[in-house]
Amino acid sequence: MLPKDPEMEVERHLRQYLLRKLGRWPTDEDIKNHLDEESAIFEKARVLRELEAANKNNEERTKQIERRNALEERQRTRNIAPSADSPVRNLEELETLSKSGQAYCVGTKIEGSKEEPIIVDIDLEFFNFNLSMFRYVTFGTESNLSNVSFIGSKFESVIFENGSSIEGSDFSEAEFGSTHFKEGCRLDGASFRFAKFKRGNTVEFDRNYISGASFLSIRTDEWSQLSRSYSGIFQYINIAFSGIYFGIILLKLYLFKSISVTQSLIENQIRFLEENSNQFSAISVFEFVFGSRFTSLAIAMIILCYQAARLYLTMRIGPLIEAERQTGYTPRRSSFEGYLLLHLIVRVLGVIAVLLFIYELWDLWSQRPIVIPKLVG
């Protein structure tokens, strides 16, 4: 059976459609008129789509212009106190100011309760909240706090939800108590200069200015834990343990060399070793340094792997720590996030290495004393 011609099939279906529509067999003129009508319909639909897209673009452009004008107005008024200056005390007043373009909110006091915290999901970009108080407040995922000034403000039991934007905001000299910046909260470029962090805070810094900030409890953010492990007292402790361990290895190497040289000198003078070779066994420098037992070899390999991994992380984390000291800015989270898993592995290896190191020292301590001839005085 020959395959059907697609064009003929289309024409056949079209004639059957027109036959049902016209009630008679369609002529070529009927087909032409139908195709012209379909083409006109498609053209009209295309024009409507283009008009709709153009209107949508115009609306977006209008919104962007209005948004830009509103932000410019906020930047202009953020440091200008209105004639009837009265600090904001509730969410309704804050929403009204957000729509009006007035951005001066110095001394604002928003307080909820432990049972019913106040949820803020408002666009507050470029607002001035200096010397304000926020207590039992939750800034929701839709809140925009970018480039907001919180200088000297106090935060008690405040939550910044995942998705809330605080990019470029200024928290200089602010006080934080039980404040939680949840994971996903965008903090890029925010300044915490001379801020005071009391107990119960959680924050993951991401390229933030923290020069002069004081922490009344141990920081728990990932960057602090990572940098603390490769600087300060922890670095000195590791250097001390490493020095002792590798010092013992170096001492063993020199001792082995001394014994080897002494033995070669003796062999040149006497034939005792050759005549009694069946009473001696050869030992390599590797066995002398690390021992012939499997446990000794395992201890050496684990400690060496730990030191190699730690050295690699120190070389990677060290420049970030130094840059933070010089500029006051914490590094971008993306610059150290890839090392967190390796750091966890290094910590586990470190615990094992310390335990094995103690075992190695105990093994050396429990060795039999060396018998030497008494010196006749």
Give a description of the structure.
52% of the residues lie in helices and 8% in strands. It has helices at 6-22, 28-77, 91-100, 222-229, 232-269, 272-275, 285-290, 294-327, 333-336, 340-365; strands spanning 109-111, 118-120, 133-139, 154-160, 175-177, 180-181, 196-197, 214-215. 21% of the residues are buried. It contains ten helices and eight strands. The termini are far apart. The protein is of the alpha/beta class and 377 residues long. Helix 8 (294-327) crosses helix 10 (340-365). The protein folds into three domains: 9-74, no CATH class; 78-220, E3 ubiquitin-protein ligase SopA (Pectate Lyase C-like); 232-365, no CATH class. The longest helix is centred in the first third of the chain and has 50 residues, at 28-77. Strands 1, 2, 3, 4, 5, 6, 7 and 8 form an eight-stranded parallel beta sheet that branches. This is Pentapeptide repeat-containing protein. Residues 55-76 have a biased composition (Basic and acidic residues). The chain crosses the membrane at residues 233-255, 282-306, 339-359.
